[in-house]
Every structure is written in structure tokens, then in C-alpha cells.
Amino acid sequence: MPDVLVLVDHDGERVHKSTYELLAAARWLGDPAAVVVGTPGTAARLAESLARHGATTVHAAESADAAEFLATPAVDALQLAVREASPAAVLVSATTDGNEVAGRLAARLDAGLLIDAVDLDSVGVVTQIVFGGSYTVRSQVTQGVPVITVRPGAFEPEERPGQAVQRTLALPAADPGASARVTARRAAPAGDRPGLTEASVVVSGGRGVGGAEGFKVVEELADALGGAVGASRAAVDAGYYPHQFQVGQTGKSVSPQLYVALGISGAIQHLAGMQTSKTIVAVNKDPEAPILGLADYAVVGDLFAVAPQLTQEVAARRTAG
Questions:
Q1: What confidence tens digit (pLDDT) does each residue in 20-30 have?
Q2: What is the DSSP string of 226-279?
């Protein structure tokens, strides 16, 4: 079977869950081949984990300054891997960085690009949700190697233990005049909650939360469920919660097993970022709120009465279990 290249998303020590999802998606099209871009030694640290999730090949694209430039090293690495492997497709996570890498790679390869896929089949037909969630379409690349970005959460990771062949890609030196350089890094405050795009449970709050203090209810339910906290654009714009937690068309796209929306009306921009969630629960006092029509379980009521009861019940069952 042909290789399917997967760009590995990692922090230097740990592979992100979205990469395991891409490896599972890649098996629909061929043999998953991981491309690791980083400083020397990164691929060796990640190889065992990648092989355990089905990677048959690990391409190491390493250089001392790989982490000092935005996008360019990843684009260079994937271009080299395409030349070497002649893959059936290239898969990248549909994040802000991933979409940029994919777009630049497709331009270099003169190939077709499909963004934000939520499903794909064995012949490369991709399902996308477009125009702010208004339409579901099926698309297929007809020229060159398909470059596809896949929405985090769209596929379930699968462990497929095996041995991965190790290969080396010689990254060219980045041209400082043509590449964006990282000048400083600031770590985001660490917490005990999972990352928003990697969480299997997301609890989001909207304008109906009423203010920053109201998000305590959202956080308590998320913690009881072992999930991440999200926010609608209206809540973020009003200063209720930090921007990096925004879910929606102009924020992050999520597709968890469970999505709980508290006080979110369901503007189309928000729905575009979460409507592929496996189960959606919505609490809103407005019986005409659009999100209630999308929800699998809808509660018309005061979120400050409903959410604490749900939090207590979840906590009680966990204690009993």
C-alpha cells in the first residue's frame, strides 16, 4: 500500500492526541508514515509512541534551528518526504498552524488542498462542513498529491503496535529573509484540564453566563466531567474568558465525545466549530435558541440552577463508582 504522510504535532517530548487521530485516518488510504520536525533527537523520543499507534515509517526532519522558524521547516520537511515516498496523501491537523503549513505545501506541490475534513473514505473522498456550518459537502482532489487538514476529534485514535522504519530527511537551512522567525516564547498557564482540541469532553459558556464570575459554574462542571473549558465568541469579546478558549469559526474547532453548551445561543459561527461533536447537551433559558435544535439533549432553564445540579450528580456518581 502507498504511504500516507502525517505531520506530527508535538511539544518536543510528547505527541499530541491529534496526531494519533491522523494516523488512524491515514489507514483509510494507505500505510501511515509520520514526519517529525524538530531539533536533533526529537524523532527518537517520539518514535515508540508513533509506532504504537500505527506509524510504519518515521521520517526525522531535524535541525538545530527547526524550532526557531514558523511553518517553513514543516513545509520543507513534507515537501522532501513527498519526493521520497510518493504518498497517496498528506494529512495535517486543522489547526491555525496546520492549515498554514498545508496551504503552503499545496502551493509548492501544485496540488489540491482540502481544509477541515471531518471524515474521509478509502478512495480519498473527504467530508467537510463549509460556509459556517451551513452545508456538508464531499470533495476529492483531482490534481497532484492530496493535502488534507483534518479537524481534531474527527477520528478516534487506535493503538496498532508495531515496528516503524526510521528515515532521515535533510532539512535545508531556513532563509531568514523569507521565513518568519520566533523571537520569544511565553508559556501558557498550565492547568490540570486537558487541551481544548484534545479533550473528549468540552463544557463551554456563552453570553448567558453573565460575566467572568459566572464561568465558575462552567469550570466546576468541566472539572467534574474531566473535561476542558470553552467559550463562545460573545463571551470572549465581552471579556468573560480568555481568547485562547474560544470555540467557533474564528476560534478553535472541536469534536469531542461530549459537548455541553451553557448559556450559548448558537450563532452559526459557534456551531461551525462544534457541531461535529458526538453528543451535544445544551442549557439555555430561551426556548428559541438555535443551539437547542442542534442538541441531542436540550434543557430549557436557568443554567445557574441546572449546571450545579449536574455537577453534583456527576461528582456523586464518581464517588460511588
A1: 999 999 999 99
A2: T-EEEE-HHHHHTTSS-GGGBBSTTSB----SEEEEES----HHHHTTTTT-SE
Judge residue 189's burial from the number of C-beta atoms within 10 Å of its C-beta, 0-12 exposed, 13-18 middle, 19 or more buried: exposed
Instruction: Give the Cα separation of 43 and 61 in Å (integer).
Output: 8
Q: Considering only 101-105, 154-158, 296-300, which range has the smallest mean pLDDT?
A: 154-158
Q: Do residues 4 and 122 lie in contact, with contact meaning Cβ atoms separated by under 8 Å?
A: no
Burial 88-107 (b: 16+ CB within 10 A, else e): bbbbbbbbeebbbbbbbbbe
Look up the pTM and report it. 0.85
Write the CA distances from 160 to 20, 90, 154, 164, integer angstroms: 10, 20, 18, 11
- The alpha carbon of 71 is separated from its chain's Cα centroid by a whole number of angstroms, namely 17
User: What's residue 135's pLDDT?
Assistant: 84
Sequence-ordered list of residues with C-beta below 8 angstroms from that of 211, at least 6 positions apart, any chain: 238, 240
For 117-135, write each residue's pLDDT tens digit: 999 999 999 999 887 677 8
